């Protein structure tokens, strides 16, 4: 199932041009790979119905890893598209970034004859793909499960520390960050040292 027109494809430029020229744009309801995958995955809940649509990750590994990092920190499922020839590399980058226990839904060939939808830990994703040669073919939607609360909190603390380290010492950054985040000062001090040394 392709993406709906103007979502993660060049059609968006046509829509903007038409609107800028004063024309009315009328959407026609139809199938959407994003919504179809979400419906079948069960990743949203009444308590947290949110999700984010990220589109296609960058093709180059370094750019893809940098692009994935903020998406992976969101406290909501993240939906993205991927092509078959980059699928393995993207899953490997997600594994390195999120760890083996974070869940990912792999939805392929939605609404077609060989449709498959599986939710597996990232540590098992490569084995799931390799178990059936056909699984590496087709059109893919990936849904990365929401970041655990602890991961989100750690990301927030890192952002606070990075900002503080621009103008104060490691000791003062840890002290101020502890007041802002409520995290233990010694933990933040160790993290601030690591961030400073990493540049």
Summarize this, please?
The chain is of the alpha+beta class and 199 residues long.
Describe what this molecule looks like in 3D.
The structure is a single chain. This protein has 2 domains: 31-147, Methyltransferase, Cobalt-precorrin-4 Transmethylase, Domain 2 (2-Layer Sandwich); 150-197. Helix 4 runs antiparallel to helix 5. The model has no long low-confidence stretch (mean pLDDT 86). It is built from 8 helices and 5 strands, in the order ααβαβαββαβααα. It is an alpha+beta fold.
What topology does this entry show?
Blueprint: H1 11-20, H2 33-41, E1 52-55, H3 61-72, E2 78-82, H4 87-98, E3 103-108, E4 116-121, H5 122-130, E5 140-144, H6 149-165, H7 170-181, H8 185-197
Parallel strand pairs: 1-2
Antiparallel strand pairs: 2-5, 3-4, 3-5
Helix pairs in contact: 3-4, 4-5, 6-7, 6-8, 7-8
Task: Please supply descriptive tags for the structure shown above.
47% helix; Methyltransferase, Cobalt-precorrin-4 Transmethylase, Domain 2; 5 strands; five-stranded mixed beta sheet; globular
Question: How many strands, what sense, and barrel or not for the largest sheet?
Answer: 5 strands, mixed
| Low-pLDDT residue spans | none
Question: What is the CATH topology descriptor of the largest domain?
Answer: Methyltransferase, Cobalt-precorrin-4 Transmethylase, Domain 2
User: What is the CATH top level name of the largest domain?
Assistant: Alpha Beta
Shape: globular
Q: How many angstroms does the end-to-end distance come to?
A: 44 Å
User: What is the architecture of the largest domain at the second tier of CATH?
Assistant: 2-Layer Sandwich
Number of helices: 8
How would you name the CATH homologous superfamily of the largest domain?
A: Tetrapyrrole methylase, C-terminal domain
Instruction: Please give the domain count.
Output: 2
């Amino acid at each position: 199932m392709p993406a709906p027109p103007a979502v993660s494809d060049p059609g968006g430029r046509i829509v903007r041009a038409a609107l800028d020229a004063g024309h009315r744009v009328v959407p026609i309801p139809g199938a959407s790979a994003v919504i179809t995958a979400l419906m079948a995955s069960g990743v949203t809940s009444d308590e947290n119905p949110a999700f984010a649509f990220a589109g296609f990750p960058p093709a180059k590994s370094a750019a893809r890893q940098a692009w994935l990092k903020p998406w992976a920190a969101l406290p909501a499922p993240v939906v993205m598209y991927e092509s078959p020839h980059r699928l393995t590399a993207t899953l490997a980058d997600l594994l390195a970034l999120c760890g083996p226990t974070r869940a990912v839904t792999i939805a392929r060939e939605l609404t077609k004859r060989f449709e498959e939808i599986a939710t597996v830990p990232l540590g098992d994703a490569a084995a799931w793909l390799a178990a059936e040669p056909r699984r590496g073919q087709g059109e893919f939607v990936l849904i990365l499960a929401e970041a655990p609360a602890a991961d989100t909190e750690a990301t927030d603390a890192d952002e606070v520390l990075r900002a503080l380290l621009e103008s104060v010492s490691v000791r003062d950054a840890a002290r101020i960050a502890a007041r802002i985040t409520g995290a233990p000062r010694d933990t933040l001090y160790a993290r601030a040292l690591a961030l400073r040394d990493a540049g």
